């Protein structure tokens, strides 16, 4: 599907639709059917919007959509059939990333007010206090900021939260309360982040040399994590590496690499985002939304009742 613009991102999936947000028009929510034939665009209205938004983003989970900007900080929630979003969290915590656990619980990545180092926390709207910090989950190697950078995502069929480091070969699997269940490794050998940083007098950090990225975009469906590998393998074809993106697949319930596949560049554009469901992998590449069907070696992981009895 030609989207005409390259500013879309995946907001989530619900009720047989794929939902897209747009960074240039953050109040527009676009629903696309799974056949990529029809779209429905709606403009969301906020119950309170007198804020200097810097990065208003949208996510969809279950029957709700959410808008949030961690620099304010504020979280809105609306029903998918309604265009009015209501404020459900205001000034509870500043954050740089958010993953939705359920309609009243959220995992966030925030920064320490003392040393600016990244840490994870969770917000529960029905708890007092709403915010609970988890400063020991992310492990400092160099500066505690860039070396701990990564992607925070929630598996949309369960309450599993995953944090994938950008500059080292590890991802962390947590339950809804951010209790660590697994610390698993990717097949890359970079165990320590290869970065050089400089800290200024105000506590901010800046890269002083180009970093070595290990992991890129990720998407999680049930017990599989799909990771956009950023480093060429020792025996990998340079030609293939230039014309396609490599996606590595890992189990999230145990230490197991299950395979890799290529996603070809389209019109000279590599993938910018991906979203996995039980049947398909959806990819954003340039102006296009592309759908790939999973074959049996991957699809078997998503069939009801087979997740616990896989043939190795």
Question: In a nutshell, what does this entry contain?
Answer:
The chain has helices at 238-243, 296-299; strands spanning 8-14, 17-22, 28-33, 39-43, 45-46, 57-61, 64-69, 74-79, 84-90, 97-102, 105-111, 118-124, 131-134, 150-154, 161-165, 170-174, 180-185, 197-199, 205-207, 215-221, 224-229, 244-251, 257-264, 271-276, 280-285, 288-293.
Task: Walk me through the structure.
The chain is mainly beta and 312 residues long. Helix content is 3%, strand content 47%. The chain has 2 helices and 26 strands. It has helices spanning 238-243, 296-299; strands at residues 8-14, 17-22, 28-33, 39-43, 45-46, 57-61, 64-69, 74-79, 84-90, 97-102, 105-111, 118-124, 131-134, 150-154, 161-165, 170-174, 180-185, 197-199, 205-207, 215-221, 224-229, 244-251, 257-264, 271-276, 280-285, 288-293. The strands form 7 sheets. It has a 5-stranded mixed β-sheet, with no helix packed on it. Strands 1-2-3-4 form a 4-stranded antiparallel β-sheet, with no helix packed on it. The chain is globular, with a radius of gyration of 19 Å.
Kindly state the percentage of residues in helix. Answer: under 10%
Structural class: mainly beta
Give the termini distance in whole angstroms: 36 Å
Reading the helices and strands in chain order gives EEEEEEEEEEEEEEEEEEEEEHEEEEEH
β-strand amount: over 45%
pLDDT below 50 for ≥5 consecutive residues: which ranges?
Answer: 305-312
Q: Can you give keywords for this protein?
A:
312 residues; mainly beta; 5-stranded mixed β-sheet; 4-stranded antiparallel β-sheet; 2 helices; 26 strands; 3% helix; 47% strand; globular; disordered C terminus
